[in-house]
Design brief:
single chain; mainly alpha; Arc Repressor Mutant, subunit A; Four Helix Bundle (Hemerythrin (Met), subunit A); 3-stranded antiparallel sheet; 11 helices; 3 strands; 70% helix; elongated; HTH-type transcriptional repressor RspR; transcription; WH_DNA-bd_sf; DNA-binding transcription factor activity
Length: 225
Amino acid sequence: MKMKQLNPRSVRDQIYQVLKEEIMKFRLVPGEQISEKEISERYEVSRTPVREAFLQLSKEGLLEVYPQKGTRVSLIDLDLVEEARFMREKLEKAVAELACEDFPQEAMFKLEQNVKMQELSIAQKNYESLFELDEAFHQTIFEGCGKANVWAAIQQMNVPFQRIRFLRLAADFNWNTIHQQHAALTEAIRTKQKAKAKEIAEEHLQLVIVDKQMLIDEFPGYFKK
């Protein structure tokens, strides 16, 4: 697959985006070895943009680069998963309460449509689509409350949490539970039930705790010891 003929920075960005998606969606699995040579040949580009993409992915904790030894997809660090989950639980409970006070009609429409699209993704067993809708659902709540920058800040340490969430969906855990909680949270926001919205947000962000051991048992090689 040849990359479009663009400037070196654009090529680097393309390589970065492609590799990040492959890692996040477990097409490249934790612990798998990859090399600059392999990637540069696959996409018919020089090694320089590949090396730069590797370094960026390393900074984000998705690759482990060992000079003169090689590069591998990083294992999932459960301590980092818990830190991100803890942060999101606290912030999402707070923003759920804010949404019950004042939430734009346009944002409410987006939430309702998102929940309907989740039903379709579940019916089609499309976990990649469900993952994207899940992310968009939470982003819509933050943006509807005027907290888009808070959502952006969350992304700085959200990668380990996103990885285990995607794996959970791919392993077919709690799809209906996730959808039901999203639907219930949408209704709580619509009817301005602050206590209910906060409770649902907390339960939702604790699903990872419930599913974590099942994922470790099924994919033991994916997790950092």
